[in-house]
Amino acid sequence: MSKPSTLTKASKTATGGPAPALVGGLSWTEEMLDVPGFEKQGWKCEDLRLPLRVYRAPTTPRGAPLVLHLHGGSFTFGNLDNGLTVASALVQAGAVVAALAYPLAPAHPFPAALHASQTALKYLFEKRVALAGRGTRLFVAGEESGGNLAAAVAMKARDYGGPPLAGQILLSPMLDPRVATRSARDAACGPVGCRWADGWKAYCDTAESAAHPYASLVNASRLVGLPPALVLTATDDPMRDESIDYAARLEAAGVAVQHHTFAGPTNFPCALLTPPAAFADIAKPDAPAGLPLRPATIDGGDATTGSLEPIWRTTLADRFAVFFAEFQGRAAAGRLATA
Questions:
Q1: pLDDT digits over 113-133, tens only?
Q2: Which UniProt keywords apply (predicted)?
Q3: Which pLDDT score, from 0 to 100, does residue 45 have?
């Protein structure tokens, strides 16, 4: 029988609580989430202990939205620091954000990352009042491969009776392992030497995995009953076409959807993985001050390029704030224009 997930504090203050760090206007703590192992045909995932970093602003009110955030990295690379652009914008929009360092492929193929994400979602739901206050509602968000996981978490929560989600936020989500849309071709994606194609191959280690609707969302035929969605992409985004198609399919299934395509150049989704300049010297609670960010790399090279400073500080946070307000009953429906 699997043991329940728990959180182990990574560092403590003199009073025994988690020791917060304050960087770039955010306070945060990093703790460890115990994820029970599981088996699938031909492969076993051992018990895991994964970092779960909780961000908030000093002014975040009780009852704020509570968001499980999943970083990008084509399923194979990336870390919590590379999720700072989106996590920071979510906090700026008024949320408490819990970011999970999910297990990466190829060492942990599908469904390891989804299993860990679902475990984190259940834990957050159980601890939602302590983390964000009474009246909080639970959301899931992710960019690129994290967008895939966020969409899959929402689908699995629907299929298995919860936890209840108020909404899902998908930025440049990886949804189609074929990597064959026009926007993917325009970005010179393909079967050889393409980060996203290679990531899909590592994540979906069998044909069955590649066809599973929790991995390949393009194969999901039942979208009815999913939580409201905010889907964001850009004209120069390789995942543009699959993002727009998924938003349209959700709408056709009766799901409330807000979606927008930013005008390029944005360098989506790579710019979403580049930590904002405000966090250039972020320090972990248990590390010396001035510890530099851990950049996501592939084979030792720089895997994230470009900057999203003007967007993450204003446009992204504004979009998130409207989404939170609309689906928490604090704004008139339809305030966010579609494109």
A1: 999 999 999 999 999 999 999
A2: Hydrolase
A3: 86
pLDDT of res. 186: 64
Residue 103 · residue 175 · CB < 8 Å: no
| Cβ partners under 8 Å of residue 37, min gap 6 | 2, 44, 45, 46, 47, 48
Q: Which residue has the tokens 């699997």?
A: 2
| Listed residue (34, 40, 75) closest to 204, CA to CA | 75
Compute the C-alpha angle 320/61/69, nearest 5°: 40
Q: Can you list the residues of the chain whose pLDDT is less than 70?
A: 1-25, 180, 184-193, 277-313, 327-339
- What the block records as the tokens of 112 is 């390891």
Q: Which amino acid is at 121?
A: L
The predicted structure's pLDDT at residue 331: 38
Between β-strands 167-171 and 138-143, what pairing exists: parallel, antiparallel or unpaired?
Answer: parallel
How far lies 106's CA from each of 11, 34, 90, 103, 264, in Å?
30, 21, 29, 9, 32
Nearest by Cα to 137 from 107, 167, 169, 104 = 167
* Angle, vertex CA 248, rays to CA 246 and CA 249, nearest 5: 65
Residue 187: what pLDDT? Answer: 60
Q: Where are the domains of the chain?
A: 19-326
Which three-class secondary structure string do you get for 233-284?
EECCCCCHHHHHHHHHHHHHCCCCEEEEEECCCCCCCHHHHCCCHHHCCCCC
Q: Which among 83, 84, 68 is positioned nearest to 23, based on CA atoms?
A: 84
Q: How many CB atoms lie within 10 A of CB 61?
A: 12
DSSP string across 293-338: P---EETTEE------HHIIIIIIHHHHHHHHHHTTTSS-TT-S--
Residue type, 92: Q
How high is the pLDDT of residue 199?
Answer: 93
| Sequence-distant (≥ 6) Cβ neighbours of residue 300 within 8 angstroms | none
Please identify, in words, the CATH class of the domain defined by 19-326: alpha beta
